[in-house]
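Good morning C.,

I know you're traveling, so I'll keep this short. The sequence:
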Amino acid sequence: MGDLGTYIPIVLALTLASHLNLGTTLIFTGVYNIVTGAIYGVPMPVQPMKSIAAVAISDPDFGIPEVMAAGICTGVILFALGVTGLMRLAYRLIPLPVVRGIQLAQGLNFAMTAVKYVRKVQDFSKSKSKGNRDWLGLDGLVLAIVCICFITIVNGAGVILAIIREPKVIKGFNFGPSSIQVIKISKTAWKKGFIKGTIPQLPLSILNSVIAVCKLSTDLFPEKTVTPTSVSVTVGLMNVVGCWFGAMPCCHGAGGLAGQYKFGGRSGACVALLGGTKLLLGLLLGSSIVKILTAFPVGVLGVLLLFAGIELAMCARDMKSKEESFVVLICTAVSLVGSSAALGFVTGMVVHLLLRLRKLGGPNQIQSFSAFWMHNPLPYNKNEDDTKSVYLSMKKEVMVDAGVQWTKHGAEIAEAHSLSRFAHMHIDAAKNRGERLLDGVQSWVETAGTHISIAEHVLQEDIRNTAVSMAIDSKFKGFYKDYGKQFQISYKTYAPTILENA
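The tokens, ready to paste straight into the viewer:
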């Protein structure tokens, strides 16, 4: 339930403001959760496309046909980028500090929105705050603070509290799924959906729904493989299929993944369980489930969103250099101030390229940023000594910066040499061990040959002894046979004489 902090408010707002078919959305998003959980093996979330939802909530003329047209167009483009391999190329080219800046901005945005949910009473149909929230009550500040302190009670508690707050919501349930119909989209709806929905949504989907999700998945689950190609294809297929039947345009989100991880999600089974719950609710209750969502404590949603934002923002901790941290902060600041991830992305890319050019230029060609910003160009001065001193001070600073850079390079080279020596030691040890093993094998081969020779000799001796024994037996048999014949002849000769004498 870690990603419900962003799922429920947007779905509820679209249902109330734009008459979104909630039953159909629950069925399709439930299937999405089950399939993606089985494919990736990580708690891959299914989130609404925020930019399209924002346009639909704020613009009364941007209805369901326009929303679905925007979702289909975005899905087709993402699917094409994934199939052609261009998304994988973008994943490799976009530097990590820029992605971390987008994640940090999204996390801080979630946290600020969460604080607003906790402090203010929300009107999701108009995306506005009504006023300060009461301290007491089943949707009060005290409940939200308790949920923050004891985060384990949040999972599932919101639904129970919603029923306790408004017991009448149970009476209005209509059992059975909502009717699923194909959405008819006119040419005007296609045009308006692409211009107002797809164009602002596409950069956010590429950065946050594909690239940032893959980066975050690698950070949280290094043993699992989540590729930008597969994520782009699944997001595209979800919208190309579901939007034709009125399901909310969906994508994966780094914030939802962070929320799932923060609340204990470690495998695809947790989102599959969530998907099964959505599917069951969509089939049993259909769109009547919106009544319980309107009574859901918004303060509890704020707690879910707060911890998801903190988890997402903490991903920016792995920046190791000042340059990388500078790019992250610039990208985050522009994204928050300009309310546009695309604008922050462009600014971050420009700053990153400038820093790269600075490194490639070398100390003798391009002076350091500190020297450039701290000193003006050489002023016209009648006193040559003053001009020369200014020049020497600037040159000294440049040389100091160059010395620092070369010292860093020297340390890196020394570390590389150390690692090389360490590797050669292991290679030599492995070589010696291999030679010893080879000698041992040869010794065993020689020993085996000796044993074979002995065995052959023994076998030959046995065969010879057996032959001699057989020959001796045969000789004795012949002797006794001849002796018997002679005795028989003698008996026949002397038998009559013996009988007569008797």
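Safe travels,
E.
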